[in-house]
């Protein structure tokens, strides 16, 4: 069971890191001045959100090899989790960015800041603080979604529980065990995000003063 927990942690951390990158890239693309880029990335977001992560995983792992692209189960799982959760995250981040008062953009123009400087040094730090509670939910949803990778033979918590059930004939003990482990992991994620939010808000209060 410990091995399965460690695999789940790896999937969650790597998948979430990829999801953040995907969310940021899609968000910035959807805020671009280029209409074609906005539409194209909007279609990508809707496709990723509108299709099942389970189907996406099977497509990446079983269909891509037909085109000469073969990925290990772990890499396939990380990519699918990152893309799926990142698509949702891009909309959350976009909403947080649009919540930034326009007066800040006007002030940045007045002091001759470039758009990328405004975005990365003024808008994004504030947007991340605004979106932090929802990003916590994203991390927990990704943690729970890792269970689907057991279908492509990754020995995560769910796969380990199934192995124990098959070997012992006992269903209750292994599945109650992973229920508790998932809950503890989600609780640790929430605790970490709450501490991070408190620290960032504390720093923001100092800046405001």
Automatic annotation (TrEMBL):
One of its GO terms (molecular function) is transmembrane transporter activity. Keywords: Amino-acid transport, Cell membrane, Membrane, Transmembrane, Transmembrane helix, Transport. It is a multi-pass membrane protein. InterPro entries: AA_ABC_transptr_permease_3TM, ArtM/GltK/GlnP/TcyL/YhdX-like, Ectoine_EhuC, MetI-like, MetI-like_sf. It comes from the Bacteria. Residues 5-189 form the ABC transmembrane type-1 domain. The chain crosses the membrane at residues 6-29, 57-83, 116-135, 173-193. The keyword Transcription regulation does not apply. GO terms for cellular component: ATP-binding cassette (ABC) transporter complex. PROSITE patterns: ABC_TM1. GO terms for biological process: amino acid transport. It is found in: Cell inner membrane; Cell membrane. The keyword Nucleotide-binding does not apply. NCBIfam families: ectoine_ehuC, HEQRo_perm_3TM. Belongs to the binding-protein-dependent transport system permease family. HisMQ subfamily. This is Ectoine/hydroxyectoine ABC transporter permease subunit EhuC. It comes from Mesorhizobium japonicum.
């Amino acid at each position: 069971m410990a091995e399965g927990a460690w695999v789940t942690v790896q999937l969650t951390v790597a998948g979430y890191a990829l999801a953040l990158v995907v969310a940021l890239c899609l968000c910035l693309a959807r805020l671009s001045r280029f209409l074609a880029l906005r539409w194209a990335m909007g279609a990508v977001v809707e496709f990723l959100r509108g299709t099942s992560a389970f189907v996406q995983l099977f497509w990446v792992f079983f269909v891509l090899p037909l085109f000469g692209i073969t990925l290990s189960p772990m890499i396939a799982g990380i990519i699918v989790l990152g893309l799926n959760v990142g698509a949702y995250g891009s909309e959350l981040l976009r909403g947080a960015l649009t919540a930034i008062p326009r007066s800040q953009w006007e002030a940045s123009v007045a002091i001759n800041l470039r758009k990328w400087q405004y975005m990365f040094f003024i808008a994004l730090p504030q947007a991340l603080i605004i979106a932090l509670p929802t990003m916590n939910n994203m991390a927990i949803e990704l943690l729970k979604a890792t269970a689907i990778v057991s279908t492509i033979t990754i020995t995560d918590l769910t796969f380990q529980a199934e192995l124990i059930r098959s070997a012992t004939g006992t269903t209750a003990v292994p599945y109650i065990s992973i229920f508790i482990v998932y809950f503890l992991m989600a609780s640790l994620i929430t605790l970490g995000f709450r501490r991070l939010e408190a620290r960032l808000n504390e720093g923001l209060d100092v800046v405001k003063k």
